[in-house]
Amino acid sequence: MRPRRLPAIFPGLLVLVAAAGVGLAAGLDWDPKPVKDDPLVRMPGTQLDQGVTLEAPNRCLNCHGDYDPAAEPGLHWKGSMMAQAARDPMFWACLTAAAQDSIWALGNPNATDLCLRCHFPAGWLGGRSDPTNASLMSSTDFDGITCDFCHRLYDPFARTTHDGSREGKDWIGYWDEKGNTGPGSQTLSQIEADVTLAADFAQQTMIRLFSGEAFFANSLPRYATYGENTSGQYYVATTTDKRAGFADATGRHPMRYSRHHKSRYFCATCHDVSNPVLANLRKPLPDPSGGKHLISEQYSAANYFHVERTFSEFALSAFGQPGGAATSAEFRAQGAPTVTWAAKCQDCHMRDVVGAAADKNNAVVRPTGSQEHPASGQPLHDLTGGNAWISRILASLDPTHALYDARNAAILGQGPSVLTLNLNAGQTPVVNGKALAAGSERALAQLRLAATITDLSYSASTGRLVFRVQNNTGHKLISGFP
Predict the structure, then answer these.
(1) Which of helix, strand or coil describes residue 276?
(2) Please, which residues bridge with residue 217 across strands?
(3) Which residue in 58, 68, 92 sits closest to 393, CA to CA?
């Protein structure tokens, strides 16, 4: 089956100079405010001037790829939309439309900095998001949501995660920490969690409000109304130790045991999206600071100007309630027989498999090789959603793969001087057709799990067709795209 081709003229892949002409022609005042000085786009979290430099994925793939196609993180990440977040041509079209809207509303394209924040985290943290047309992005910036980005995220709510008041005290069940009774326990998991807590506290001291004051007070956000760090409000450690969800992991680099990475709130970081520009501009919420601090610094993004709500939908579902819920019989029968219970996003989108996370001899083969986390398999780093089309289009750019399509390659391969999009940067799809095609197939399989047609009836005499669509997921169908 050949991939569907892109249209010959793909609208939207424009530089912002052209978009700016639209705004100026409409008679709006141009306000060339630098992004770092623009309060309208400011959100809590690590900022672009804090000196965070992310490692390139090839540093991780040396040990975490090319050894076990059934379980390794490398192959599955390369085929995921996470790895292609900055190469998705639909993203570029949306970026252009958002820039035009921003110019109309604000007099500059600064609002699109919010798009770059999530789709180009390495470039954003490196200060390459201004101008906001991504023209300064280069090299591994185009690898999107990378290994080092995810594994350097720390928990801004570390205190309440650690004491069990945020997501519960089911240390043996939800957290899968054998024998743990919580803070004060001397199990390996609790000891390592204590060490990580201290490291997270140290990182929190670097987070500032736009005014320059400390964002945290007593190791919690200053405002109690700020209860979630969604909408791309990420907190990235300045240290290079890697955080992940196993206290007994082995490796040659510094590691920290992170309950945050096992939590549903980890995924919420990017998968609940609001527009802080409109919140800060219109100030629709009460302002306890008396105008001293931004609305986006005082409230969780779920309170204002919804764009996408996948995590909120999940949190309100049966799966998002304390303890989670059983998956449906239809869901299991349609391709996920081992996923019988779900309490967090990772249960379905990073399901457990048998294997090791690295190619080293002492790497723990999960679940059988772990006494500390006996119920946890190796999380499959496919991070699969429902986007099968873009993965397949990108797979068609690899001339060595059966899906290769010269027309698609010509359209998307015009280079950064024409499209800004640079397909030859980083872990390029031009040589990763196999991983991307596999990612597309996994997305199709995920879609087959998502819903079931039930109560079907058809009348041959009248042509009347009646059926019910049963949602098997923890969020709406379709979710995640505005």
Answers:
(1) helix
(2) 220
(3) 92
Which of 89, 113, 101 is closest to 36 using CA atoms? Answer: 113
Could you give the CA distance from residue 308 to residue 183 in angstroms, rounded to a whole number? 36
481: left (phi over 0), alpha (psi -120 to 50) or beta: beta
The dihedral over CA atoms of 403, 407, 408, 411, expressed in degrees to the nearest 10, equals 160
Side chain identity at residue 203, one-letter code: Q
Joined together, the tokens standing for residue 348 give 């379905």
Q: Find out whether 159 and 220 touch, Cβ atoms under 8 Å.
A: yes
Asked if 383 and 78 count as a contact pair (C-beta separation under 8 A), the reply is no
Contact 110, 95 (CB under 8 A): no
CA distance 427 to 49: 26
Q: In sequence order, which ranges of 342-432 are alpha helices (DSSP H)?
A: 346-349, 388-395, 406-412, 416-419
246 near 58, Cβ under 8 Å? no
Q: What element of type H or E holds 242? A: strand 242-244
Q: How far apart are CA 137 and CA 127, in angstroms?
A: 9
- Helices 388-395, 433-450: axis angle to 10 degrees equals 160
Assign 214 to helix, strand or coil.
Answer: strand
- Residue pair 200/258 in contact by the 8 Å Cβ criterion: no
pLDDT tens per residue across all 482 residues of the chain:
455 554 433 333 333 333 333 333 344 578 789 999 999 999 999 999 899 999 999 999 999 999 999 999 999 999 999 999 999 999 999 999 999 999 999 999 999 999 999 999 999 999 999 999 999 999 999 999 999 999 999 999 999 999 999 999 999 999 999 999 999 999 999 999 999 999 999 999 999 999 999 999 999 999 999 999 999 999 999 999 999 999 999 988 999 999 999 999 999 999 999 999 999 998 889 999 999 999 999 999 999 999 999 999 999 999 999 999 999 999 999 999 999 999 999 999 999 999 999 999 999 999 999 999 999 999 999 999 999 999 999 999 999 999 999 999 999 999 999 999 999 999 999 999 999 999 999 999 999 999 999 999 999 999 999 999 999 999 999 888 77
